[in-house]
């Protein structure tokens, strides 16, 4: 992934903050007209990166109004698909024909770049937008010229996998340049399945679905690693797949379920032992709180992973 380009008003004088956001960021980059009620400080930030032809943007801002005017549309050089995911706060958008769209946090939807619309962005609204150029996606669609859906997507099934994969792209670190096109293709294949795929799109979508399931599985392990009873059967039930498929997913990553789970637990313990605010907790307390139920087993794995015992790491992190 290309390095993030960050636009922020934090270091500007209050009188300069909203004009900068309006002229430099919204008018020039996102092709939006923005207004606000009142004056004073306006805190906003946008992080943008590219990945194999995809454009990934996260943004948050104080309350303001957004408008996609005919003039803004005329400046658009292509007709991409915009997957929009509110992360905090809700998106409330109204198109010129009177149709309204409301998407709550975690609910994916699409924004049509060729339709006049306006939206009220409430204070604290944060969102993720992934822009997929139509030439990248159209060959995978049953109807290449289709317009984006007008209603928010239910965050279940394939849609939930799409959201999980989109979030993983938002948090991804640097990705080797030789792999970026493949990662983007996985996303577009999954997106095509959600929108209605062609025969070729369904073939591409299988790879995207498998990768999205693996990402969802890894995220679930990170969230539930502290449960000492966690096992592949519980994950299979959560994903709605067979136990055999869970093992196949992890084999494709080069790490088994058990190894991945131990690594998640060790990472959490490594961070906790370095945290001075947790000095009152013993090494055993931290190990058991993160899913280990055998202290000697924990010590052995920790030393193999980090080259020192948990106690030695805690002492070294204080020096």
Could you please describe the fold and organization of this structure?
It is a single chain. The protein has 319 residues and is an alpha+beta fold. The protein has 12 helices and 11 strands. The strands form 2 sheets. It has a 6-stranded antiparallel sheet, with helices on both faces. It has a 5-stranded antiparallel sheet with strand order 2-5-10-7-8. The longest helix has 26 residues, at 199-224. The protein is globular. The mean pLDDT is 88.
Oligomer: single chain
Biggest sheet statistics: 6 strands, antiparallel
Query: Order of strands side by side in the largest beta sheet?
Result: 1-3-4-11-6-9
Strand content: 15-25%
Distance between the termini: 35 Å
Estimate the global geometry from the Cα principal axes: globular
Structural class: alpha+beta
Q: How much helix, percentage-wise, in residues?
A: 40-55%
Stretches where pLDDT falls below 50 for ≥5 residues?
A: none
Number of helices: 12
Total beta strand runs: 11
- Provide the succession of SSEs: EHEEEEHEEEEEEHHHHHHHHHH
What is the average of the pLDDT values? 88
Please state the CA-atom Rg, rounded to the nearest Å.
23 Å
């Amino acid at each position: 992934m290309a390095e993030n380009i960050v636009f922020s008003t934090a270091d500007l004088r209050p009188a300069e903050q909203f004009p900068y956001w309006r002229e430099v960021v919204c008018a020039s980059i996102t092709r939006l007209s923005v207004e606000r009620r009142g004056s004073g400080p306006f805190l906003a930030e946008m992080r943008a990166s590219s990945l194999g032809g995809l454009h990934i943007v996260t943004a948050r801002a104080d309350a303001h109004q957004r408008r996609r005017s005919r003039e803004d549309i005329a400046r658009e050089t292509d007709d991409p698909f915009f997957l929009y995911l509110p992360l905090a706060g809700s998106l409330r958008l109204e198109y010129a024909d009177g149709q309204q769209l409301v998407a709550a946090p975690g609910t994916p939807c699409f924004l049509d770049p060729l339709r006049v619309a306006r939206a009220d962005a409430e204070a604290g609204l944060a969102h993720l937008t992934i822009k997929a150029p139509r030439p990248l996606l159209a060959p995978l669609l049953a109807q290449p010229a289709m317009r984006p859906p007008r209603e928010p997507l239910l965050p279940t099934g394939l849609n939930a996998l799409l959201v999980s994969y989109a979030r993983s792209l938002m948090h991804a670190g640097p990705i080797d340049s030789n792999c970026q096109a493949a990662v983007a293709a996985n996303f577009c294949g999954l997106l095509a399945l959600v929108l209605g795929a062609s025969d070729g799109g369904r073939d591409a979508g299988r790879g995207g679905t498998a990768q999205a399931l693996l990402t969802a599985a890894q995220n679930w392990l990170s969230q539930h690693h502290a449960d000492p009873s966690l096992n592949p059967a519980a994950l299979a039930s959560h994903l709605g797949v067979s136990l055999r498929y869970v093992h196949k997913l992890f084999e494709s990553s080069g790490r088994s379920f058990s190894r991945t789970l131990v690594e998640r637990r060790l990472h959490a313990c490594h961070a906790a032992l370095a945290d001075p605010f947790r000095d009152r907790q013993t090494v055993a307390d931290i190990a058991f709180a993160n899913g280990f139920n055998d202290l000697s087993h924990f010590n052995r794995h920790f030393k193999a992973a980090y080259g020192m015992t948990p106690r030695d790491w805690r002492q070294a992190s204080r020096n």
